[in-house]
Specification:
Its cofactor is Zn(2+); Mn(2+); Fe(2+). The protein is of the alpha+beta class. The protein is built from six helices and six strands. It has two domains: 4-92, Winged helix-like DNA-binding domain superfamily/Winged helix DNA-binding domain (Arc Repressor Mutant, subunit A, Orthogonal Bundle), CATH 1.10.10.10; 102-155, 2-Layer Sandwich (Dna Ligase, domain 1).
Length: 156
């Protein structure tokens, strides 16, 4: 979870990005962004996010959350992520992430864990060298079994 000071910094950064795009951080957008910041490791769908935002902003509608997510995705403030369940989830890009972070997806319990170190720098250099393709970003999800599920299987 992002601490409160970092949440405030990220909120200010996002507000600046919106202003640069000619948009305002409306109360509904603010509530949506604050919820994304607070729950940034949860990988929420639009509907899950809506339920959480509605707790703080009871008058918000699902369509408003969808529109906000679309704006945030266009501005590359959030990324759309799809795991094995086929549901589009939203993942906040933080200031410290030059690249999109990687994910570990447990195929038993569905838990998603984030890896924040860039594991593919050598691969990017090879792609550029061998194919003349400049990589702007990449996404990587490792599928497997988490430590908790492995421990449970070992006990059985």
């Amino acid at each position: 979870m992002i601490d409160l000071a970092l949440q405030s910094e990220e909120l200010s950064r996002i507000e600046k990005q919106l202003h640069q795009a000619g948009l305002k951080l409306t109360p509904q957008r603010r509530a949506t962004v604050k919820t994304l910041l607070r729950l940034h490791e949860s990988h929420l769908s639009a509907e899950e996010l809506f339920a959480k935002v509605k707790e703080a902003e009871p008058d918000i509608g699902l369509a408003t959350v969808y529109r906000t997510l679309e704006v945030l995705a266009e501005l590359r403030i959030v990324n759309r992520v799809s795991f094995e369940d086929g549901i589009t989830r939203y993942d906040l890009r933080t200031e410290d992430s030059g690249h999109f972070h990687h994910h570990l997806l447990c195929q038993v319990c569905g838990r998603v864990e984030e890896i924040h170190e860039d594991l593919l720098l050598d691969v990017e250099q090879k792609v550029e060298q061998d194919y003349g393709f400049k990589v702007a970003d990449h996404r990587l999800t490792f599928l497997g079994i988490c430590a908790k599920c492995r421990a449970k299987q070992h006990l059985q």
